[in-house]
Amino acid sequence: MLAQIEEVPEWDIIIIGGGATGLGAAVDAASRGYKTLLAEQVDFSKGTSSRSTKLVHGGVRYLAQGNFKMVSEALRERGLLLKNAPHVCHNLSFIIPSLHWWQKWYYGIGLTIYEVLSGKLSLGKTRLLSKKTTRQLIPAISSKNLSGGVLYQDGQFDDSRLAINLAQTAEEQGATVINYCKLTALTKTGKRITGVVLQDMLTGKTLTINCKSVINATGIFTDQVMQQDNPDHKPIVTPSQGVHIVVDARFFPGKQAMMIPKTDDGRVLFAVPWHDKVVLGTTDTPVNDISLEPRPLPVEIDFILQHINRYLTTDIRPGDVKSVFAGLRPLIKVKGKKMTSILPRDHTTIVSDSGLVTITGGKWTTYRTMGKHAVDNAAFSAKLKMYPCKTESLLIHGYTAGVATEDPLYIYGSDAAAINQLMIDQPSLKEKIHPALPYSKVAIIWGVQHEMAMTVEDVLARRTRALLLDAKAAIEAAPLVASIMAGLMNKTEDWESKQVKEFEAIAQGYLLP
Ligand SMILES: Cc1cc2nc3c(=O)[nH]c(=O)nc-3n(C[C@H](O)[C@H](O)[C@H](O)COP(=O)(O)OP(=O)(O)OC[C@H]3O[C@@H](n4cnc5c(N)ncnc54)[C@H](O)[C@@H]3O)c2cc1C
């Protein structure tokens, strides 16, 4: 990829940021035929895009706020994602428990509208449930005050796996996508941006590159790039922190997810089965500092545990938590509104006088339309030849029809066959990296050789989800992962021990004190 960067004299579109938005733009631009380069300063989806609630959804909450346009668009995108990437996105049943008889009807009507809005891409019917059926479907639910429930369908996914697959799709469509490469400056001819300066974060090398247009898809770092373009730029992004707790599935057995429809701060809270664990969250806390490793606040952990425990027969205690992770929403500021939970979730596109196209806000679910809007604007502003968008029916890397989720390698989709072959050729690759983690050594080999994993953290946090599933086990697995990677990548023992230390420092933040 680095060699390709130096070969091209002028790129049509350079995208800064390798999260959902930037990767969506890279797939879009490359599939239209533009010479496309994407640069990510750390790893694909290192930012917010690996820290979501893992839902591909329209957003039931936004329906209650009356934002029908946004919900309809997201429901359409949900349907397309489940069609184009069925190995990483699937249908999941959600239950809203009702504590008063009228709630069942109230939420039932709302969720029927939700289903109708998804039109032909509906995932299935909304049903009202009796108290008995609700208890059968959610065995952990407390019967105290329970009057029944509403069952509806939505989507679930693995965010960083989808991000990696999008990077692969972009590359297959002709894009150059590179991680560990940071934008350090924008270069201009007159007032217009005509290039970028990138720094290879692994070697320190600086690359000066020409281009016709630049898309700023840097999430919570949006304002930093806009300030590089215009030092007088006034910030447009308000970061809002969301925290998730991960616990063993025994606290919430069954296949269904649960949605608590109204928390004390008027939001919703989910309990979602994910891989072999359950994800609980999230919060919405305004924060001042932006960081690639935001830290959960004790009050956020208390908030999640308190709310979830109101609904369960057995209390979940801090000691039961396997991992806790936080992400920052890049929300657009609205004059006079300080509470982040009421700020709009729609995305915003801004074309600056210099031609810089900034796209931010939105949701993972709508990454495709965000990518399309960014590329439409970049092509128009740079007067590129206009080509139509092709991503609506573009299959995402790994696509396979008839996904068998009981196969431990199902998440790799069509790559599973080649991974299986590696294990046939070298049976030791079947060995698990840790007794408490669902991953074998082969995932490390595959991550390094085919998925651009460069560090132990890339493997344990985003190629596999070990860090999010069980932080302690991930820390214990790190020396083995480092040693296999060092062998593959021809690295020294120093590199190995530095990698383990760096991973441990990050992973400590995923453990509760
Ligand atoms: C707690 C939480 C839960 C959520 N749950 C859901 C959900 O269930 N479903 C859903 O649809 N959406 C969800 N979202 C929203 C969704 O995750 C975000 O909208 C989306 O991930 C934002 O993607 P992004 O690409 O804009 O930003 P990011 O993922 O943050 O990507 C920006 C990237 O830019 C890179 N970057 C920054 N500066 C530079 C530079 N100078 N050079 C190179 N690279 C740079 C960063 O390293 C980063 O990787 C959730 C968000 C949060 C916070």
Explain the overall architecture:
There is one protein chain. The protein has 16 helices and 18 strands. The chain has helices spanning about 1-5, 20-30, 60-65, 70-85, 100-115, 130-135, 160-170, 220-230, 300-310, 365-380, 415-425, 440-450, 455-465, 465-470, 470-490, 495-510, and strands at about 10-15, 35-40, 55, 90-100, 125-130, 150-155, 175-180, 180-190, 190-200, 205-215, 235-250, 255-260, 270-275, 275-280, 285, 325-330, 345-350, 355-360. The strands form 2 sheets. Strands 3, 4, 5, 6, 11, 12, 13, 14, 15 and 16 form a 10-stranded mixed sheet that branches. β12 and β13 (about 270-275) form a beta hairpin. The longest helix is centred in the C-terminal third of the chain and has 19 residues, at about 470-490. It is globular, with a radius of gyration of 22 Å. Bound molecules: flavin-adenine dinucleotide (FAD). Flavin-adenine dinucleotide binds next to α2, β8 and β16.
Major sheet details:
10 strands, mixed
Note poorly predicted spans. Answer: none
Mean pLDDT: 95
User: Ends: how far apart?
Assistant: 41 Å
Q: Which cofactor or ligand species appear? A: flavin-adenine dinucleotide
Total strands? 18
Structural class: alpha+beta
Identify the overall geometry: globular
- The proportion of strand residues reads 15-25%
What is the helix fraction of residues, given as a range?
25-40%
Gyration radius, in Å: 22 Å
Tally of DSSP helical segments: 16
